[in-house]
Amino acid sequence: MSAAAPSLTFLALCLPFLAALVAPALTRRMGHNAVWILALAPALAFIHFLGFLPAVADGGAITGGYAWVPSFRVSFSWLIDGLSLTFALLITGIGTLIVLYSGGYLKDDAHLGRFLSFMFMFMGAMLGLVVSDGFLMLFVFWELTSITSFLLIGFDHTREASRRAAIQALVVTGTGGLALLAGLIVIWNITGVTQLSELIGLGDVLRESPFYLMALVLVLGGAFTKSAQFPFHFWLPNAMEAPTPVSAYLHSATMVKAGIYLLMRLNPVLGDTAAWTTILPVFGGVTLLVGTFLAIRQTDLKQMLAYTTVSSLGLLVMLTGFGSDHAIAAAVLYLVAHSMFKGCLFMVAGLIDHGTGSRDITRLGGLRAAMPITFAAAMAAAFSMGGLPPFFGFLGKEEIYEALWHADTWSLAFVAVAVIGNGLMFVIGFAVAIKPFFGPVRETPLHAHEGPALMWIGPAVLALGGLVAALVSPVTHRFVSSPMASAVHGAPELVTISLIPHIGAPLLLSLITIVFAVAVYLGLDRARRFADRSLRAIGWGPDRGFDQFMSGLVRGSRRITGVMQPGRLDIYMGVTFVFIALALLVPMAVYDEWPARPVWPEDAAFHELTIMAIAFIGLLAVIYARDRLTAIVSLGIQGFAVALIFMLFGAPDLSFTQFMVETLSVVILALVMTRLRLTAADHRPTGQKLIDFSIALACGTGFMLYLLAVTQQPFRPYLSEFFEAYSKVIAHGGNIVNVIIVDFRGTDTLGEIAVVMITGLAILSLIRVRASRPDQPIVDNDPDSEPTPTGAWRKGRKLGEGA
Amino acid sequence: MEALFALLVGALFTVSIYLFLSKHIIRILMGAAILGNAVNLLIFTAGRVTREVPPIIPPEFDVPQSVVANPLPQALILTAIVISFSFFAFLLVLGYRAYQDLETDDSDEMRVAEPVDDVPPPLGY
């Protein structure tokens, strides 16, 4: 490997992000033709990754990267083995075709530049995700794919259905991402490594840890939400609100496979335990059946394909869970085949939509002559999806049956699941490829016509790819299937299956599948009605559950806010002081640190006691005063008493300041309060007074005990001695208090002056600024309404006033 | 002597908090004024009390010639008095202006920021 290779790989990883940066400007200048240039970015990355094929086929792995946060051993580093490389090639290869397709599909859309920008951001995130070596990098890219998916699903943000689907996808996959983060941290804590490449050898440490199950469940939480496993599957069909290129790319070929990628990546370290080989096949199998059953019900091309994507993902999880040689080989083959045929079929659905204006399978027919290329691509993809030779899907399906066929009940149950699932997917695939193209020509909103070259290049290439990959299967296996299967298995593995069928159980199962599928296909309308009826009978689904959850969340938050913030100052104050009292008293009680019983000070002089008594009397008078003025004067009494105490105990500066401040306070208070027409006395009912006084007394007692405890500790005079010793020597001042304020702590005093100045300004503005009459109520920004031209609001207001 | 001070501090806190718990702005304001005294006296006492010897160095000496009062709490309190007075003035004007605009000094009736009949948040998307 040359020295330039690491930086080139880094550049290849950055290319999509660079394209995202220039896409809007380029689209503004060149219109939709900009995609020809922009598609170079993923194409170049594709070529770069192709160069790794020979090295990876020989069992090597390409690593590299840069330190990120070395103190936490977090790095930006990549690991490109068979698994990562296959994914990287799918992402960049299909990505190139999708970019071209988007140019045709959104040709006249004003926001094509923004769309392409989001698309490239996603591509970069997904590419980063599959080559990540560091845990944190993996997580960051994982969440980034969720966020870009949110942006793309909500692309048509003026429609509520889009917004709902986008939020739903973000909530489900984002929550799963957090579970994944927790899972990765648990794994990090168990093994002490932060890199996937170092983790691979530590499978036994992980499997024997008592925290294994916790790590597994958290990781599965991330993988199952991302890969739309039952019961988290509902977001994926809703995500079809996005433009078709997004459905083809994110929600069938790449992003939804991130969960599968994670499971495959962690199979060597987390796999091969009872939990793994039970949870994964069961969830996968249920998802497979639920997905196909829901797909039968649909008549919208994209919805049908979306539900079969759910079932395909279930099949992949199921196979990964089995973990045997054949199961992994089958998962690998099926994953590659699925990315190609499903991406192709989605683009076909987009072409039909684009060419006829309709996606409803019951309203389409006879398009074969008008859309020959689309028809050919659809048929090829359906053959692959149905698992018929000579397409790549055939290899996948044969390997699946080979893997599952064992003579025990557990295996046979899954064989049955696979046969039903495959059969129904066969039905959907051919329903999409046959129904719109054969039969009598139907009236459609648009006059049926073939799409532009930009739009059929993608499906045509993917359909051909499915054929070629199968025809040259030894080459495919050497460079793609075997290295990937080895990486998933954690040990070298050779995939050998070819197009030549060998007589055995798999072939028999294939035949059963096809017979079952043809039977269902012929009665498709009846099957659809049956599925529809039974789902109506159930009525409730996770999709509606999500709505209930979200509105419950809003209502619950409102209720909690209502309790926590009732909007009443006395309650806020009460709660605050109860907690202050508890904070003061509870620790003393718990640690038994009550102060010693104080002794009566023998040396207390009579005049000192008198002044203290005056302070107490002033306080009582404040509470019991019958009218405001008395209360204010009493307030002055206790203030002056405190000032006298300062005077007697060696603080003349404090005393003078306190006298001045107290005088001013009383005068201002009296001036202001006599201007108000206020009722005199305390209006609280006696019970409330009693409660309030108890709280106050608890706080006061707490502070008193606290102060007693403090003063009973030995005094440490270090700071005071420092100031006494250096006040004259260093700062040349005799009054130590003043020296501290203006010299030693001069900056603090500056801050104090600033505070005084700011409050002064605030007071000034409060006095000067008069509130106008209550303003017009703020009208919420309604996204569905037409944007208001500038000035229209004022005009409308004037009109309203006139009327 | 500190025990007596602690008792006075406790009384100041009790009265101030009792006033704070009232619903009337004017009583809360008086509570704020007393709270300032309570905290100042708390700091003063925590630095220990000494009688009648202010912390001043005579002109002809470099260090105090006898035990003097602790200068550190005094410096802290001097700052605190000024700041609490400016805040007291601010709160007073704020309460006065609130009364002018809302025509009440009952905190229960001041519901502009958190109205009783607040509209529930939208449930759609």
UniProtKB/TrEMBL annotation, chain A:
Query: Topology relative to the membrane, per the entry?
Result: Multi-pass membrane protein
Q: What GO annotations for molecular function exist for this entry?
A: antiporter activity
Report the source organism: Hoeflea marina
Which Pfam families does the entry link to?
MbhD, MbhE, Proton_antipo_M, Proton_antipo_N
Domain (NADH:quinone oxidoreductase/Mrp antiporter transmembrane) ranges: 134-417
Work out whether the entry's keyword set contains Transport. Answer: yes
NADH-Ubiquinone oxidoreductase (complex I) chain 5 N-terminal domain boundaries: 70-115
Q: What is this protein called?
A: Multisubunit sodium/proton antiporter MrpA subunit
Q: Where is the MrpA C-terminal/MbhD domain?
A: 614-677
Keywords from UniProt, A to Z, are:
Antiport, Cell membrane, Ion transport, Membrane, Transmembrane, Transmembrane helix, Transport
Major location, coarse class? Answer: membrane
MrpA C-terminal/MbhE domain ranges (all copies): 689-769
Name a biological process GO annotation.
monoatomic ion transport
Q: Where is this protein localized, as stated in its record?
A: Cell membrane; Membrane
Lineage per the UniProt record: Bacteria, Pseudomonadati, Pseudomonadota, Alphaproteobacteria, Hyphomicrobiales
Which GO cellular component does the record give, naming just one? plasma membrane
The record ties this protein, via InterPro entries, to: CPA3_Na-H_Antiporter_A, MrpA_C/MbhD, MrpA_C/MbhE, ND/Mrp_TM, Proton_antipo_N
Region feature (Disordered): 776-803
Automatic annotation (TrEMBL), chain B:
- Determine if Cell membrane is one of this entry's keywords: yes
Location(s), subcellular? Cell membrane
Record's keyword annotation contains Membrane: yes
Give the bilayer topology.
Multi-pass membrane protein
User: Among the entry's GO cellular component annotations, what is one?
Assistant: plasma membrane
Question: Pfam family example for this protein?
Answer: Oxidored_q2
Q: According to its UniProt record, where is this protein mainly located?
A: membrane
InterPro entries listed in its UniProt record: CPA3_antiporter_subunitC, NUOK/Mnh_C1-like
UniProt KW keywords? Cell membrane, Membrane, Transmembrane, Transmembrane helix
Q: Which ranges does the record mark as transmembrane?
A: 6-21, 28-46, 75-94
Q: Which family does it belong to?
A: Belongs to the CPA3 antiporters (TC 2.A.63) subunit C family.
Q: What is the protein name stated in its UniProt record?
A: Multisubunit sodium/proton antiporter MrpC subunit
